[in-house]
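queue> holo job accepted (magnesium ion)
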Amino acid sequence: MTSQGPMTDCACGLTTGYTLTADDGAWKATPCECVVRCFNCGGSGWVTRDLEGVPFEIRCGVCTFKRGIAARITAAGIAGRYVLGPIEPWSKEQRAVMRWLKSAVIGQKKGAVLAGPAGVGKTQVAVWALWTLLTDHGARVRYRHQRQVFQGLKLAMDGQEGGTAAVILDLTSAPVLLWDELDEPSSEWQRSILAEVFDLRYQAGKQTIVTTNLSEDRIGDVWGYAGPRMLSRLSEWCPIVGMGGPDLRQHKGGER
Ligand SMILES: Nc1ncnc2c1ncn2[C@@H]1O[C@H](COP(=O)(O)OP(=O)(O)O)[C@@H](O)[C@H]1O
Ligand SMILES: [Mg+2]
Ligand SMILES: [Zn+2]
Ligand SMILES: [Zn+2]
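queue> job finished
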């Protein structure tokens, strides 16, 4: 693929500037031909302007934003089994939570802990909020599943020195984090990681969206003796929202 000549074919129909795939488990956005061979800049991302005889380079207004969004989607690591983009609520409970997320979380600083039984659509609405923050607000977001985080840390520990620091930094520095399936840690080491990530994110005021199958009265236990302190922080920064409803894994596309 070269950047010479005008773009001849465009898979996105000159809309988003990327195409989506989820071959290796997570959603990945590949920049479309209309960005790779942008008619305005030829794909370099820069255009030359002339200011009183002096040429200078500015960012291409046609493809720069689209290119950034594609990179952010891939960096987010959203599990491929969740629907991306606008979704229609599948239950009245989901509709209510989406409304609340729209007013209290999306475009605001606040996070949320969505607590409820498996299959009611917690992760799907959380992914919807994450996606909206990414595409409408250009936010740098991360999707991470608790089990996947601990597996990643184990691998990083067995590998080179400093590997775990990079994993933790990724979790603590992301402006928006979706921590999927918060659960009782299975070791004190895991508990200390949970405390570190949530402490640092709280101190930095970073938006954090959590899903959990734990009942509301068991969420604090995740942090052990620090549970009461964490619950008091969560109440302001990341309020717990109970979510019920039917098991949507059996959904056939009718119930509203
Ligand atoms: N509104 C919706 N539109 C499309 N798919 C949905 C919707 N709500 C839930 N799903 C799908 O239903 C299944 C269960 O939802 P999920 O969010 O995983 O539930 P939970 O996290 O509460 O266990 C998932 O496959 C999810 O993608
Ligand atoms: Mg889930
Ligand atoms: Zn395109
Ligand atoms: Zn361009």
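queue> The beta strands are 18-21, 28-31, 46-51, 54-59, 112-115, 141-145, 176-182, 207-212, 240-242.
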